[in-house]
Structure formats: structure tokens, C-alpha cells
Amino acid sequence: MSTEKVSLFLNPTAGRGRAGRRMVRICEILDAAGVAFDLFQSRAIRDLESQVGSHVKAGTRKIIVAGGDGSVHEAVNGIMQAGANAQLGVIPTGTGNDFAKACSIPLDWELATRQLADRLLRGDEPRCIDVGCMNGRYFANGAGIGFDAKVTRIAQSYRWPIGDLVYLYAIFRCMVDGIETPHITISAEDFNWSGPVTLVNASNGAWIGGMFHIAPQAANNDGQLNLLIVDPVSRLRITSLIPKLIRGSHIAETEITHVRVKNLLIEASAVMPSHFDGEVGEPGTRFDVEILPDALELL
What we know:
By secondary structure, the chain is α+β, with helices and mostly antiparallel strands. The chain has helices at about 20-35, 45-55, 70-80, 100, 110-120, 145-155, 165-175, 235-245; strands at about 5-10, 35-40, 60-65, 85-90, 125-135, 135-140, 140-145, 185-190, 190-195, 200-205, 225-230, 255-260, 265-270, 275, 280, 285-299.
């Protein structure tokens, strides 16, 4: 039985504040199970990342994050940037919880907490998963440039309690603003591509925005990224593609190119927005992307 104390990091704003409201119950479940832990809360963007990194550098080896995909994103960057071996456990309390889906973690947060506590007390061996990296920043679930990155920025500007539907609303808002299709070139191991695009997405997990099954063939333990390139499309065509994106039946559509890659270079003719795990990234014209196999241990 494991008696090692773990560090629990909670983002009280995750899931439009749901994580904060669930904090007491999460602590009660861990206490009742006999898990020894210290609780830390994030107070601002990148605060959780900074705290996790500091703890890992100081020798903490078991990290639990209670939050959404943004919290997981910060935790993964904190662990990876610390350059030390630390294991990550996740209690999904966010809006989309795409990472939890990719890792078969129950979306019932109380059940996920109890199961994680059981694994910790039994001393179960962690499983290894891949981590992506784009321009020096890590991602657990996926990264993208273009239309989906613009959707991410707009979705994050709203604080409405409507769950995943905020991403759907953001798509329609983006279409009203106009769809940019800059020319890009992509160079990978055995794949080259050139032309105007609506978006480019590199997926480590299968879901994005909670409800969109963007890469149904993706697995975060296969040492590959699923690259999705979408040609220029009209507003009407985007509307018709949305149900297919939700079902994961879009891969064979004529405007979509899908390949598996390990690393790639994207160069754009104009500055393009970017996102990591549904978090707004730095815009740019050059994006170096790679997969790091078995880079993270998951509790």
C-alpha cells in the first residue's frame, strides 16, 4: 500500500467555477480513502503551471490536478519543464474534459476521485502516455492553428454556464467574422503539403472542445500525432460539417486531409492564431510540432 503524500492542485475557476464548488467533496473523498495530500489552489492563468513546476523541482513525485483541460495543460507543462520524473493524476471538473476522455478517466468526478484514490493506495503502476510539443510548449491532447484556434479564443471570452455549447456558439461567431485561409506549407517525414487552409490540427487525443470527435483514430500512447488539414470551406459547408465533426465521421470528406506523423513543420504566409489543449497560444507564421512518446506517467 502506498503512503506517499501527494500534491493536489485545484483550479477553482475550472468548469465555470464547478471545480471550486466541488473542492470540499474531493478532499472528503481522498481523506475518507486514506490518501495523504496537500491542497494547493491556482489563482491566475499559468499559476498552476508555476506551482506544479516548483513542486516537481523540489522533489514531489505524485501530482493530482482537479480541473479541466486548461488545468491539465498547465500541469503537463509544469512537469515537463521541470525536467524531473513526476506522475500525474486527473480529476475532471472542467467544461470539455477532452483529456479525461482520451485517457478513459470517468467523467463522473466523484467516481474518478474514488478510483484514483484506490490506485494510489494500491500502489498501481502508472501508464505512460505521449506528450506533444509545438514551438517549445507542451500539449497533452492537441494543438492547432487557424479557424479552431480562433474559435478557442472566442469561446474563452465567454463565461456563460452552457458547457460545451460555448464552443458551438463560438464557431458561428467566427463564421460571422469571416474565415481566413492563408497559404501554408507542411513538411513531415514522408508527407508534404502546400496550399490555402481553414485550419490545421495535430491531435494526440480524439476530442476537442468537449463535443467534437476531431480525430477518432487518435490514441495518446501510439507515438504518433493525427494531423488534420481542412481546405478552404464556405460558411454553409462548415455548418454541414459540424454534425460530422461531432460524430467523428468527417475524415473521408473531400476537403479534409488526414495523416499520421511524428514531427512536422508548418510555415504560413500570414500570422495565424494557435491553441494548445483548448488554451490560447501565441500567433505566428512558423510552427514546429513533434510527439514525445511515453513522456508522461499517468496515475
